[in-house]
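FAQ

Q: What does a record look like?
A: Structure on top, sequence underneath. For example:
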């Protein structure tokens, strides 16, 4: 049953993406080079620096900043350019005339403060996820951004920038999954999540993810990506938020849970979303399944499989009324591979979109409103989890004020 990719050629998807205008942002690029300052030079900040280096025609790292000397020294080695300015105070970096835009990769509790200062200093912003630590900060940042309409603020939910995720969003909107009722997501690891500390007095600065004063825990650091995709793909948000968890394995003084389960009810869509994460077993690793009456999509970061329900198979084989014109190429599990570009990771696509949005004055697909919606979800999940109390979106009427 040999044939070219079914989803690409048979008509199950239109010849051009429903979201073509959004995808165009990621690939049509201007020639001007953007000068970038990186604020926060931990694993994420330096990882993005390496991605910027892979796009030398679009970006030039001109400044770096971190409050920890050893991280700043490490970032200087990666930058490998004596002309790159180094700072320990982000306010000083923001005043540099050699910086057009900043990547903010500091602790979650500092996201709002640094992003606010960047807007006030007329810098474009790539702000790591989750957008803010809590709901009040998200609401204030949305209002502040309205006063700076010409500055781009993109939120770093990078995984949904891969072509696969645009294509799955289109499949959902065109009805090829049918009526979606269930979403099953996991992001598991077998790791303490702890980083080595050069000095005991730096414990909370280095391992900030483990302390509730600074971190939204697993819900913010991992599950927010999948939560964000569902909000974006269905243009929705949960109405009821339930969650539980605990410090079930690593009794090492951490405060954020190492084992969590979050369940969202999307009343308007008639969906239940299950989002789980543990640091004690990595067998499932990253799991993302969207289940509808006509079929299910199972996704990794760059690979996806569509599993049609039996009653949908005949319909798929007679797409556009051309019976037998092509043969469906099934994999050994009875699924149809969703082929999309997958030679780059999400950060590469996201940063290309960041550059293009600045050059063309376009709104990012992961913008301040989608970022705020996900930040709300993470905050309410943690409220439900730590207080053992179901949260309801309607009990926070201020959340809907940003969409008017």
């Amino acid at each position: 049953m040999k044939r070219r990719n079914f989803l690409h050629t048979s008509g199950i998807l239109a010849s051009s993406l429903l979201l073509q205008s959004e995808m165009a942002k990621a690939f049509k690029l201007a020639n001007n080079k953007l000068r970038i300052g990186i604020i926060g030079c931990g694993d994420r900040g330096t990882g993005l620096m390496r991605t910027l280096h892979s796009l030398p025609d679009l970006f030039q790292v001109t400044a770096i900043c971190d409050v920890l000397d050893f991280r700043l020294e490490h970032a200087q080695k990666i930058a490998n350019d004596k002309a790159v300015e180094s700072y320990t105070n982000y306010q000083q970096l923001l005043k540099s005339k050699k910086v057009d835009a900043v990547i903010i990769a500091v602790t979650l509790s500092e996201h709002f403060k640094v992003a606010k200062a960047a807007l006030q200093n007329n810098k474009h912003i790539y702000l790591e996820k989750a957008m803010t630590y809590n709901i009040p900060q998200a609401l204030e940042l949305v209002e502040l951004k309205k006063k700076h309409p010409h500055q781009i603020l993109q939120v770093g939910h990078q995984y949904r920038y891969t072509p696969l995720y645009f294509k799955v969003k289109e499949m959902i909107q065109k009805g090829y999954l049918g009526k979606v009722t269930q979403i099953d997501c996991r992001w598991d690891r077998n790791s303490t999540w702890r980083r080595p500390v050069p000095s005991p007095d730096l414990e909370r600065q280095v391992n900030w993810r483990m302390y509730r004063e600074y971190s939204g825990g697993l819900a913010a650091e991992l599950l927010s990506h999948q939560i964000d995709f569902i909000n974006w793909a269905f243009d929705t948000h949960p109405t009821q938020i339930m969650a539980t968890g605990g410090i079930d394995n690593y009794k090492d003084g951490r405060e954020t849970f190492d084992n969590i389960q979050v369940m969202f009810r999307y009343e308007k869509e008639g969906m239940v979303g299950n989002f789980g994460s543990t640091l004690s077993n990595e067998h499932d690793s990253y799991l993302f399944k969207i289940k509808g009456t006509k079929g299910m999509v199972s996704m990794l970061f760059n690979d996806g499989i569509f599993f049609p329900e039996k009653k949908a198979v005949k319909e798929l084989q007679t797409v556009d009324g051309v019976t037998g014109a092509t043969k469906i190429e099934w994999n050994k599990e009875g699924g149809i591979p969703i082929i999309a570009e997958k030679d780059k990771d999400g950060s590469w696509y996201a940063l290309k979109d960041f550059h293009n949005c600045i050059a063309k004055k376009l709104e990012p697909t992961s913008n301040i409103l989608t970022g705020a919606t996900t930040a709300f979800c993470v905050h309410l999940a943690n409220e439900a989890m730590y207080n053992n109390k179901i949260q309801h979106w309607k009990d926070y009427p201020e959340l809907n004020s940003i969409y008017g």
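Q: Is there anything notable about this one?
A: The longest helix spans residues 368-387.
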